[in-house]
Structure prediction request, 898 residues.
Amino acid sequence: MTLLSIRNVAKQFGKNVVLRDISLDVAEGEFLTILGESGSGKTTLLRIIAGFETASAGEVWMGEERLDCQPPYRRRVNTVFQHYALFPHLTVEQNVAYGLRVAKRPEAEIASRVSEALEKVKMSAHAKSKPSKISGGQQQRIALARALVNRPRLLLLDEPLSALDANLRRQMQVELKSLQREVGISFIFVTHDQEEAMVMSDRIGLLRSGELEQVATPREIYGRPATAYAAQFIGHTNLLKGDVRGGMVRCGLLTWPAALPDGPALFSLRPENIRLAPETSEPGTVRVRGRVRHQAFHGATELIRVECGDGMVLVVRTPGSGGALDDVELEFSAPDAVPVRESPERI
Amino acid sequence: MELLVSDARLGSGSSWLLGHAVAVFTFLYLPIAVLILYSFNGEGVGGFPPHHLTLDWYRTLFADGPIWDSVLNSLQVALAAMVISLTFGVPAALALERAQFPGKVLFRRLVLLPLILPGIITGLSLQMLFNVMGTRFSLLTVVLGHGTALISVATTEVFAGLQKLDRAQEEASLDLGANYWQTFWRITVPNLKLPIIGAALLIFTLSMDEIAVSFFLMGRNNTLPLEIWGRLRRGITPEINAVSSIIFVFSLVAIVFWYRLRARGESTT
Amino acid sequence: MFSRAYKTAVTLPPLLWVTVFLLIPYLLMFCYSFWSVSASQTIVHSWNLDNYGQLLRVDVYWQTLLRSMWIAARVTVFSLVLGYPLAYFLSFYAGKKKDLLYQLVIIPLWVSYLVRAYAWKTILGSDGVLNTMLQYVHLTKHPLEFLLYSPFAVVLTLTHIYTPFAFLPIYAALEHIPRNLVEASHDLGATPGQTFWKVILPLSIPGVVAGATFAFVLSLGDFLAPLLLGGPSGIMISNIVVSLFGAAYNWPLGAAISFCMLLLVVILLVFSERLEKKWSFS
Prediction:
């Protein structure tokens, strides 16, 4: 069931085009992440959905109603702001109750819903404190409670974890995800952190320079990136340029079969799909020889840079067992070299 | 986002606000506009509508000796007051921002008091002091009065500038081998250039217009406001409109300049 | 961080100057308020509270003080009524023109007080611009007398002078409010009107208190406007003080009144500072 339908939305500020022709459907109950670098337009897109900006073109629909004609205070959408935006002159409790008070709900209902919301984010003990007296992580929970207590149909989160330190961040990622499952409403989460996107999302929408590069589940985006940018932005990858002739790719000294039309082609090969080759390889694997230039210890694995002749450098992820390596023989399976589209420079 | 609601939604609430704003600006500027208009009115102040526009009053003004004497006096006083206020106001700001000493709170309140206290109280108490000391009243006493009263302006501006100053710059200077005095002159003062100039401009303008303190401390020589004041008691002439219009233009230029300076200061931090 | 010598060199000169030219004069005035003036117009240095007693007993003194406070109160209210919506408009609706409009507001602030008071005098007089204009368009037959030489003229002129004073701290407070709070309020369902009452106004109160204090204190002690435009019914407390130091030659009494004003101002300042702190949330 589609909850939100973004249709050909574009936005420009003066001469600056921030969003071009964005079309996206958000399903009921899904956790969708809009992933992008700074300047990609992700926050602008969120603000258009929330109502703080109007689109220069296109429409946003929620169910049968057109959303983008309505002011923010009439939309059944709530936002968790990047710097929380808690009201400093109100207590935690009053902050959470704000939306309900404005809607003139009966006091008893407000009291019970507020205490329920505070319990859900584990902040009941701080109900009477002022925002200035609680920590960043705690403020973030209150911002969440304040938004959710209104039972919106859609929750927007604008990089809410970016101000937290690494450990707290990881913890909140897990909590947010389980919270979303619990309340069952759609979340649109904006971030520049690709790991965060992969951990939390049902689907990821990768935004680059105002256009959607790819919209897919984390596994799909990782395993089958559509473009070079997608392949490089999410995780590490090796980009291999090759020429296809009669179903065979030629890439420097390497060659493998690929069911592609003749012509130049680009492939994404993940470092973990390259291994140190055993004595003999299985049929269908590609062998390549090289010299190790750099070894980086990453705890459970190692990342090694291998110069393979002809200017080609491969980054390989190996289990962090071996000592120092020098000359190596590598192998990878042909299907692991995923064909990707070029990502042209966008003005 | 500058606007509360996007352009497409300026509703009835904000058009009322716009109307109010226009009304307030009219209220603020109308008297001045009328003043300037009537400085060209051949038939003097009052009477509507103004007929017979002329430059006569300006001609009278330029031939008016005592007025120009008082302008000269005011200029001298303003410049001297500027020197005094800055000489004591800048260190006062430094002391308040950096040092701890007994009586600091009293000092801060005392320095800022003339800003909000009715000018006549400061003027009167200084008059008493000079009486007791047996000092003759003259432009010098006026200078001392202005200089003292306007220290607060210098202190406020410089204090704000100090707070914007990055301490790390001074620490870097010390780290690189400069001692406290060198750091003060090479790093601190240049960074305070803009607030000091702004304060100087403000003090000058305020001193040129000052009446309350000057009233009690003047001798035989008038400052410009006091000269105008004296004329007013004898009756209104459009010549006063003329000199007022000129004062307005000068103040306008000074304040716009001061504002630009300040804006420049803010953008460089 | 700075050496003792530096700190002493920086602190001592202003401290000395302020002591000699501010502290001692105020103390001197305090002392004078306890002395009295003899029949032969000399100051008698006998310490008593007579002057303060006079203040309370003699009608004209405390009545004038009350009238001054009433005028100051009206000026304060009008300045806030004019200044707050203006500040709100500039801060939230002015967009790119904000800077220019701000300059337009502060310019009158620094343009000669005398010039502006004088301008009103020429407008409000019975031969003044306003009256002659009203007669010219046949709205009135005779000049309106109450326009000049009345408390009305004083309140009008002082409001004109002090509205920008009230505007400044209110504008600063409004600018200080993070815009994402306004967006959050909208996001949670509050209309711009509700947002104003529940979020913007409470957070702007320190600015309002500061503006009100400026307007009140400055207009209470004003002596120029009442002198130029007040007439006999518009005399304020400062005019009495000035006359006591002039023609009515009674320095000790003048000092007593001045000192009371000083005390009143200080009390108001302390009170408003407390109020500002109570309502400041950042």
